[in-house]
Amino acid sequence: MSDKIATRDGFGDEIVELGKLNKNIVVVDCDIGKSCKTGKFHKELPEQYLNVGIAEQNGAGFAAGLATCGKVPFVVTYAAFGSMRMCEMIRQEICYPKLNVKIACSHGGVTPANDGASHQCIEDMGILSTIPNMTVIMPADYYSTRKLVKAAAEYEGPVYLRFTRDAIPVIYAEEEEFQIGRAKHLREGKDIAVIANGDTVRLAMEAAEQLEQEGIGARVLDMHTIKPLDQKAVRDCVNDIGRIITVEDHNIINGLGSAVCSVAAGMGKGIVKCIGIQDRFGMSAPYERLLEMNGITTDNIVKIAKELQ
After folding, report:
1. CATH fold of 184-304
2. Fewest Cβ atoms closer than 10 Å to its Cβ: which of 103, 126, 130, 194?
């Protein structure tokens, strides 16, 4: 995990390749293509690119119309706008008729850092997970982003894709394969299970390495798809280990931790400790500092894992 690159760059590179292969793929840009990495798509595939301006709600409705004509539109904006400003349109015009629209959003979680609370979207995956027919995905690195964007383009139905603004470590090899709704097993262990997604997967891996040095084996799962959740993978963790830590760059309410807790509660056993944004707004500060303020750190994962032994 030495090289670092933002997952929004993975989206920008992959969407160009997909657009060349499939002329029905269209980017509906909400006037922030530079930040969301759609500039190359615009340059190389101008006839498949539309900029609706700073009008996200119109972008969602326009994309819905395109989908009824056989197009595969990717609405591109920031997570805060894609999940909240567009929410009613996503519900009524995209998810209710189950149209083949993809909402591709950069600046998820606290990676916007110094941009402050207005741009640090810590509610998005929870909000959109509650809407029927919506699939919710957050890749962990550049290569998983490319594979999951491709999978989303091939998937029939609404998909929300969440990317980071800040550069994060590369975890996967280029040839790694991914499936929507199927967690990736990164490490095996019998003492603790750590389930993470997005930019926190690298923290889970670092924690597992530290725990191994102290004789504690950690199973690490990359739960890139929040909805539909890989319930079998969670049930296996509950049955095999019984002690789970979830880690996410999202409000601890109604995110990955809540979804995992729901599975464990339904089984009537297991302990789940949730690490994430502590139900509060962000602020202007460096990215790593914001994670630290919410306990989203390697050291905190290690500490809780030891307490659960």
Report:
1. Rossmann fold (3.40.50)
2. 130
Q: Verify cis geometry, omega within 30 degrees of 0, for the bond prior to 139.
A: no
Contact indicator for 180, 134 with CB cutoff of 8 Å:
no
Domain boundaries, the chain: 4-169, 184-304
Q: Determine whether domain 4-169 maps to CATH 3.10.20.310.
A: no
Q: 4-169 and 184-304: same fold?
A: yes
Nearest to 251 by CA among 294, 309, 194, 189: 294
Residue 278 CA to residue 293 CA, distance in Å, equals 9
| Under 8 Å between Cβ of 183 and 196 | no
H or E element: which one contains 63? helix 56-68
Give the model confidence (pLDDT) of 202-253 as tens digits: 999 999 999 999 999 999 999 999 999 999 999 999 999 999 999 999 999 9
Measured at the CA of 102, the angle between CA 230 and CA 113, to 5 degrees, comes to 80
Pairwise CA distance, residues 102 & 27, whole Å = 10
Amino acid at 230: D
Instruction: Say whether pTM exceeds 0.70.
Output: yes
Enzyme catalytic residues? 56
